[in-house]
Protein 1
Amino acid sequence: MNIGFAPAKKTSNKLTVKKARLIIRPYKMKTDKLYIKNMVCDRCVKVVQEELEKLGYRIKSIELGKVELIEPHQINKNELEHSLAKEGFELLDDSNSRMINEIKSIIINQVHYNEDSNPPQENLSQILEKEIGRDYSYISNLFSTIEGRTIEKFIIQQKVEKVKELLKYRELTINEIAFELNYSSPQYLSNQFKQITELRPSQFRNMLESGRKQLDKV
């Protein structure tokens, strides 16, 4: 009896390689707090709130430089950065940058938006220590290293901007402004103002008055 064998099926030595697809997903970060640069006024707070709500984020609290969401949220970082950037803001990731931003926000809030005209129970260094949770020497050194100027210089610059605002929009004397901003004397205010602007407050106010008279003649 002849036993026949069916011809063996030819097998291919070629390997089948599936092409890998590169899928790029937006980077997401899980957090319940956002730190935002250039958020330094009431209008800024409103604009940031509107942008976040457009993107579907639920806000628990919002203040200068910082937003707290109702719950930890998967944040589309690229989308959020783009939305904030078009309004002139910047999302901060780095811990040191976040701390600098928080320091500035605390100072701006104390200088520009503190409605209490009574002498403060705590000075700014104590307020910063309490709010940041670090000792003042660490806060001061970090600020100087990153900003290239001291905290004291930044505080003076903010106070001078507030003095300008009061000179421009409110009919207050230099003595009244010094009292409102808790300066030890009008002379001390005047010296700081001149240090930054090269003008005394009275000279600055005269320039404003001169400008108004010229506009009236138009």
Protein 2
Amino acid sequence: MKKIAIIGTIGALIAAGAVWWTIGAAGTSTLSTQNATRAETSFGDLTTDALCYAAKCTVGMVAAVAFKPGTIPTDNPTAQQIASLLQTPDEKWAVSKLTGAQIRAALERSLSRVPLPNSAFLQISGLKVKYDPQAPRNRRITSLQTNTGPLRADKEYQVVMPLFLAKGGSGYFQIFDKDDIVRQGNVGLAAVIKKFVDSKDELNYTGQGRITVGR
């Protein structure tokens, strides 16, 4: 039987600057999009990981506008349950070639309104970002790491996103657009996530701390 472990609470994350955290009450076993407009979520982590798996990319981003509010069970979620947390379950994905500078600019935009809700807030995979919510906009990021080390401004990365976002949706056209797309998938988001879940004996989402407050 497949299990997805989810523990902890969102609590006062933004104010307290906790390093390890997740969505959901302690001891529960749910995937949630709660507060996806201003914080990392368990379903957001799962979605971006699934996109990276499908596209064979190391970096993934999904804007909060792609999600519906809700919670689903972690134990073998059905395709219908997964689709219930997505605004457009059949939306395809695209891979864009972006520089580290573009990725950083996108994340600064994502964090620009915290702690206020922002439909452009990004759920991420393959990155860990620390930020100071009291700093001026566009200067909030204090640390930005990939899985292999610091993000390099001049290096190009292949980043997988829902097609709407890859085309510059949610205001990101100021940073990247359709001209940056290098390839596209032909499978919808819900199916991508379901395939990823089914491919794993166990998925562990105990609060990976991809987006945290810190100086």
